[in-house]
Automatic annotation (TrEMBL):
It holds the Pfam family ADH_N. PROSITE patterns: QOR_ZETA_CRYSTAL. One of its GO terms (molecular function) is zinc ion binding. Residues 10-339 form the Enoyl reductase (ER) domain. The lineage of its organism: Bacteria, Pseudomonadati, Pseudomonadota, Gammaproteobacteria, Lysobacterales. It comes from the Bacteria. This is Zinc-binding dehydrogenase. InterPro entries: ADH-like_N, ER, GroES-like_sf, NAD(P)-bd_dom_sf, Quin_OxRdtase/zeta-crystal_CS, Zn-ADH-like_protein.
Length: 341
């Protein structure tokens, strides 16, 4: 097998492709011959040493990656409901940047026939994160107004689709003009903050505020996002991208300054304004594995029916993992990225 290993946190040079003995599935496990690995911004944060679950749940050396698609290569004892050669996608807690992945049966799902390997490998993390926020934290209702930051990215694209599917009016925020048409094609009204004033446009589109705002930017927008909630509105936080580097190297002084400037939400103000703040991190939800499996089944049923559509994917050979990380850190991508072992 070939896999990407990060021995210790660092810049793009920390990503090494190594050969190791092929793994063998144990009881209740499945060995997947990986055809595509999903790339997420969280993987770059893992490489930098800033991802809390990587430090607390795994440690270094570590193989990044949370999602793959491929074919069943071997079945461990007790797994009798899959077939050798069957197309599957899988969720893992790290270890996804690999050509061969052993994963527990509960993390393996039959791949929708309409999706190719790259499309399938890049949907679990972002769509499941979006589903958890939309249907377990925000409780989407028809007619709700949503504001989705980074609406052309992975989770953002998924949120726009889930919001529209639930009958919500979705406003998507993008940071570059080449993302506007794509975001609009998903069914959102679009604010291009590279040429428009974000909050002026946001107020014009929803004078009474938003029932839900989804924000992965951190200090750059969190305060204003909370201010633009309607009474009973919910701010859903799932990242801090504006605080993190785009060069692959951490500027610790800037990170500390941004951390100090990050809004702290006052519970007394929240009770008087009837506003809420929730947050989500998929890698810390392992205790909710059955609920997440329910969410994946719900999502895959809608991919099968065509109600949800896969995201555009940029693909790179496994050996070009550093280039893929540079690309996702640039902030210029649409949809998702994948590595092809």
């Amino acid at each position: 097998m070939r896999c990407v290993v990060v021995d210790a946190p660092g810049d793009h040079r920390a990503l090494k492709v190594l050969s190791r003995p092929d793994p063998v599935p144990g009881p209740g496990e499945v060995l997947v011959a990986v055809e595509a690995c999903g790339v997420n911004y969280a993987d770059a944060i893992i490489r930098m040493g800033l991802y809390a679950s990587a430090r607390q749940l795994h440690g270094y050396p570590i193989t990044p990656g949370f999602e793959v698609a491929g074919r069943v290569l071997a079945l461990g004892p007790g797994v009798d409901d899959l077939e050798l050669g069957q197309r599957v996608l899988a969720l893992s807690l790290f270890n996804g940047y690999t050509s061969h992945l052993v994963v527990g049966r509960t993390g393996v799902f039959v791949c929708p026939a309409a999706l190719d390997a790259a499309q399938a490998a890049t949907l679990p993390t972002v769509f499941l994160t979006a589903w958890f926020m939309a249907h377990r934290q925000v409780h989407a209702r028809p007619g709700d107004r949503w504001l989705v930051h980074s609406a052309a990215g992975g989770v953002g694209s998924a949120l726009v689709q889930l919001g529209r599917l639930a009958g919500c009016e979705v406003v998507g925020v993008v940071g570059a003009s080449h993302k506007v048409d794509y975001c609009r094609s998903l069914g959102a009204s679009v604010i291009d903050k590279s040429s428009q004033d974000l909050w002026t446009c946001a107020r014009e589109l929803a004078p009474g505020g938003y029932q839900a705002i989804f924000d992965a930017n951190g200090v750059g927008t969190l305060g204003q996002s909370y201010a633009h909630l309607a009474p009973t509105g919910v701010l859903a936080v799932y990242g801090f991208h504006s605080m993190l580097p785009r060069s692959g190297r951490v500027n610790w002084l800037r990170l500390a300054w941004d951390w100090l400037r990050t809004p702290r939400f006052n519970p007394m103000d929240m009770t008087q304004s009837n506003k809420s703040v929730v947050a989500a991190n998929l890698s810390f939800l392992q205790s909710h594995a059955l609920e997440l499996r329910e969410g994946m089944d719900w999502l895959l049923t809608r991919f099968e029916s065509g109600a949800l559509r896969p995201l555009p994917v940029e693909s790179y050979p496994l050996e070009d993992v550093a280039q893929a990380h540079r690309r996702i850190e640039s902030g210029q991508t649409l949809g998702k990225l994948a590595l092809l072992p």
